[in-house]
């Protein structure tokens, strides 16, 4: 018996939607509609210092102007602290998570001493300093263990519907990652896994910049005994400097005086054909085009295996 499709768009309310975020929103909506499924919106506001007051409601208004309306009422991550704590307690009880007393400078010194000081994508690969105890330091964060029961590495292989077969040595390339931060806030990794499970998400469609997070989330899903969704990571929209378009590097808010024009631009980034139609008819045409595109790619990936 097949499981009913449930997808979601999960923006952070750090500002209004921009061209890059509309690409991800449109792709997730199209994928849900092409599967005859349910499309949800989840406001990922656990990183409260970065959230902009009113940005959540503005994002919902922007989506509605584009005809992208969720099938169920939106939810806010900031209301789910009890669920995150329950999951964290479970991980600690099974020995899969532990308190860490290391500061960033502590990690840098430990890595330098072991000859592993090179950052990974701007992140420091945690060397496991506190795996066997805090050594007199006060607890700061809580980390997820990335060692197998026999002490070996954790390696995650997964399939992306656009990028194909993926693989990551979680132990060597990421290290024990944070679940609750030193400032008491919940990490994105834990929050998204708990919420995807609670909402019964079967398919995740999001930007390619988040593909690197997927192995960590699959690791948590396995530890907690939850199903792993199907993943598809969409192409990134780049700014004039060649970097990912984002709120952090000055991406401008969507100009929605003509929502259809914004949608057509997003469809172009997804390699969908351009058609002339009113917005409602255009969206219906894009659902059919998405279904044709994904079906063709599925056929190619099957023939390649």
Automatic annotation (TrEMBL):
<dbReference type="InterPro" id="IPR049940">
    <property type="entry name" value="GluQ/Sye"/>
</dbReference>
<feature type="binding site">
    <location>
        <position position="247"/>
    </location>
    <ligand>
        <name>ATP</name>
    </ligand>
</feature>
<keyword id="KW-0547">Nucleotide-binding</keyword>
<feature type="binding site">
    <location>
        <position position="44"/>
    </location>
    <ligand>
        <name>L-glutamate</name>
    </ligand>
</feature>
<dbReference type="GO" id="GO:0016874">
    <property type="term" value="F:ligase activity"/>
</dbReference>
<dbReference type="InterPro" id="IPR000924">
    <property type="entry name" value="Glu/Gln-tRNA-synth"/>
</dbReference>
<feature type="binding site">
    <location>
        <position position="130"/>
    </location>
    <ligand>
        <name>Zn(2+)</name>
    </ligand>
</feature>
<dbReference type="InterPro" id="IPR022380">
    <property type="entry name" value="Glu-Q_tRNA(Asp)_Synthase"/>
</dbReference>
<feature type="binding site">
    <location>
        <begin position="8"/>
        <end position="12"/>
    </location>
    <ligand>
        <name>L-glutamate</name>
    </ligand>
</feature>
<keyword id="KW-0030">Aminoacyl-tRNA synthetase</keyword>
<comment type="function">
    <text>Catalyzes the tRNA-independent activation of glutamate in presence of ATP and the subsequent transfer of glutamate onto a tRNA(Asp). Glutamate is transferred on the 2-amino-5-(4,5-dihydroxy-2-cyclopenten-1-yl) moiety of the queuosine in the wobble position of the QUC anticodon.</text>
</comment>
<feature type="binding site">
    <location>
        <position position="188"/>
    </location>
    <ligand>
        <name>L-glutamate</name>
    </ligand>
</feature>
<keyword id="KW-0436">Ligase</keyword>
<keyword id="KW-0479">Metal-binding</keyword>
<comment type="similarity">
    <text>Belongs to the class-I aminoacyl-tRNA synthetase family. GluQ subfamily.</text>
</comment>
<protein>
    <recommendedName>
        <fullName>Glutamyl-Q tRNA(Asp) synthetase</fullName>
        <ecNumber>6.1.1.-</ecNumber>
    </recommendedName>
</protein>
<feature type="short sequence motif" description="'KMSKS' region">
    <location>
        <begin position="244"/>
        <end position="248"/>
    </location>
</feature>
<dbReference type="Pfam" id="PF00749">
    <property type="entry name" value="tRNA-synt_1c"/>
</dbReference>
<feature type="binding site">
    <location>
        <position position="126"/>
    </location>
    <ligand>
        <name>Zn(2+)</name>
    </ligand>
</feature>
<dbReference type="InterPro" id="IPR014729">
    <property type="entry name" value="Rossmann-like_a/b/a_fold"/>
</dbReference>
<feature type="binding site">
    <location>
        <position position="102"/>
    </location>
    <ligand>
        <name>Zn(2+)</name>
    </ligand>
</feature>
<feature type="short sequence motif" description="'HIGH' region">
    <location>
        <begin position="11"/>
        <end position="21"/>
    </location>
</feature>
<feature type="domain" description="Glutamyl/glutaminyl-tRNA synthetase class Ib catalytic">
    <location>
        <begin position="6"/>
        <end position="253"/>
    </location>
</feature>
<keyword id="KW-0862">Zinc</keyword>
<keyword id="KW-0648">Protein biosynthesis</keyword>
<dbReference type="InterPro" id="IPR020058">
    <property type="entry name" value="Glu/Gln-tRNA-synth_Ib_cat-dom"/>
</dbReference>
<feature type="binding site">
    <location>
        <position position="100"/>
    </location>
    <ligand>
        <name>Zn(2+)</name>
    </ligand>
</feature>
<feature type="binding site">
    <location>
        <position position="206"/>
    </location>
    <ligand>
        <name>L-glutamate</name>
    </ligand>
</feature>
<keyword id="KW-0067">ATP-binding</keyword>
């Amino acid at each position: 018996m097949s499981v009913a499709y449930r997808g979601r768009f999960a923006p952070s309310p750090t500002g209004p939607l921009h061209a890059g975020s509309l690409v991800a929103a449109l792709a997730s909506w199209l994928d849900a509609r092409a599967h005859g499924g349910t499309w949800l919106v989840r406001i990922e506001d656990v990183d409260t210092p970065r959230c902009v007051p009113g940005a959540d409601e503005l994002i919902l208004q922007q989506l509605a102007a584009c005809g992208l309306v969720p099938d169920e009422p939106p939810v806010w991550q900031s209301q789910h602290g009890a669920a995150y704590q329950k999951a964290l307690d479970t991980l600690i009880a099974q020995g899969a998570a532990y308190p860490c007393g290391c500061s960033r400078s502590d990690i840098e010194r430990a890595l330098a001493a072991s000859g592993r000081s090179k950052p990974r994508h701007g992140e420091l690969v945690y060397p496991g300093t506190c795996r066997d105890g805090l050594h007199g330091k006060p607890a700061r964060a809580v980390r997820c263990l990335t060692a197998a029961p026999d002490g070996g590495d954790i390696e995650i292989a997964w399939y992306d519907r656009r990028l194909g077969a993926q693989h990551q040595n979680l132990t060597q390339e990421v290290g024990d990652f944070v679940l609750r931060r030193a400032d008491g806030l919940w990490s994105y990794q834990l929050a998204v896994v708990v919420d995807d499970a609670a909402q019964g998400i079967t398919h995740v469609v999001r930007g390619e910049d988040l593909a690197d997070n997927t192995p960590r989330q699959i690791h948590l899903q396995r530890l907690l005994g939850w199903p792993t969704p199907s993943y598809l990571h969409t192409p990134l929209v780049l700014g004039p400097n060649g970097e990912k378009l984002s709120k952090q590097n000055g991406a401008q808010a969507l100009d929605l005086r003509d929502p259809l024009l914004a949608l057509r631009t997003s469809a172009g980034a997804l390699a969908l054909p351009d058609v002339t139609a009113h917005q409602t008819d255009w969206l219906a045409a894009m659902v059919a085009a998405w279904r044709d595109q994904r079906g063709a790619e599925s056929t190619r990936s099957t023939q390649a295996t």
